[in-house]
Amino acid sequence: MTGLEIGIAAIILLIVLIYLGMPIGVAMLLVSLGGVALIRGEGVAFRMAGSVARDSLKDYLFAVVPLFVLMGLLVTVSGVGKDTFDVFQSALRRVRAGLGVATVFANAVFASITGISIASASVFSRVAVPEMVRHGYSRKFATGVVAGSSVLGMLIPPSLLMIVYAVLAEESVGRMFLAGIGPSLLLAALFSLVIIGLATFRPGFVYDRTEQHDAAALTIPQMAGKGLPILALMGLVLGGLYGGFLNPTEAGAIGALGALIIATLRRSLGGGTLWRLLVETGQITVSVLFLVMAASFFSRMLAMSGLPAALGDALLSGPIGPWGFLVLYLMVVVALGCIIDSISIMLILLPIAVPVAQAAGFDMIWFGVMTVIAVEIGLLTPPFGLSVFTIKSALNDPTLALGDIFRGTFPFVLAMIACLAILTLFPGIATWLARL
Predict the structure, then answer these.
(1) Could you say which of 166, 167, 357, 411 has the lowest number of CB atoms within 10 Å?
(2) With contact defined as beta carbons under 8 Å apart, do 217 and 88 qualify?
(3) 220 part of a folded domain
(4) 31 HSE (CA, 13 A, CB side)
(5) Torsions phi, psi of 137, nearest 5?
(6) pTM, rounded to two decimals
(7) 107 and 149 in contact (C-beta within 8 Å)?
(8) Domain assignment present for 436
(9) Coil vs helix vs strand at 207
(10) 141 lies in some domain
(11) How many CA atoms lie within 13 A of 16 on its CB side?
């Protein structure tokens, strides 16, 4: 077999193994080991496996993963998500479908600290959905808003997907974080316009009752008391990061300490909760870093096979050209999002797509933002729809059908596709801050 044939066979085998249920990291390691053994021999394959394990994880930057994960978990258990929702609910109570808009912005603020979409979906399904239903909104719309706005967690910095992309594409994590600000604000604005538009032109989709009553108003001192913890944490993390005082790892450490103080002051860590969060942090961190190591090995195997270079030559010199490649790539990402999770998509595709995108002359920061948004669409699309399943599980309501939640998310999927189109026409939205 030639190197190209081995590379193609490796990708097909990897997809088959994942479809059969093998963990993505294990499948990548086995396929990569076999691929290198066929290309260069068994001795080279085992030596390369050892060097990849050493080289791919030795960077000081990887300390950011457990720190941001721990910060997100601490914020989740401390009740900050509910307080954030209460503040926006009060502030936007006079806006048409104001509770839906409040959910979007509260989720955006909460996501700026957690960095994990599933955490946002889990928290706001318990906080926002019952409140919206109580005020006359349909469950289909309420769950759709929560699922749709939860994807902001992977776009607004700090973001776990941004970190994974930065590592695989060898880009700056700090620049990727900065690049997420403009697109996340654009996406939040598009979500809000969708909600207001639906409430205006399709009220039957939004409301279960003809009459809705306003949410309770908070006094200014009450709003300040509920909003101060999250604002203080955002100031510590994002202010230090964007102000240039802290690198991403230091910002993660400061954020984890701040979240620990908030959770302690709120007495949220009793009954072994802190130990459980530390164990969960370790489990998430190990799984992410294991996947990064496996992806690094897979990337080296593909480079050795010559497949990315050959694919780049075939696509970019052919009739579809660079922009045709981009459209095809985004379509594949969205299609894979229907069957496998976000990180797995990036680990499979980026070793192939990044060299082609570089050869096409794309800005790799912008390409990363486009990738993250396309990957996040997969959290809302059947049959996988991880955010949808998270909401279904968190609500534990047997009368709530998965199909209703998926139908509720459809307008937000369209908004995300529109966001991709806007970023394609105006890439500066993603790159101007990162290039300062």
Answers:
(1) 411
(2) no
(3) yes
(4) 30
(5) -85, 150
(6) 0.78
(7) yes
(8) no
(9) strand
(10) yes
(11) 8
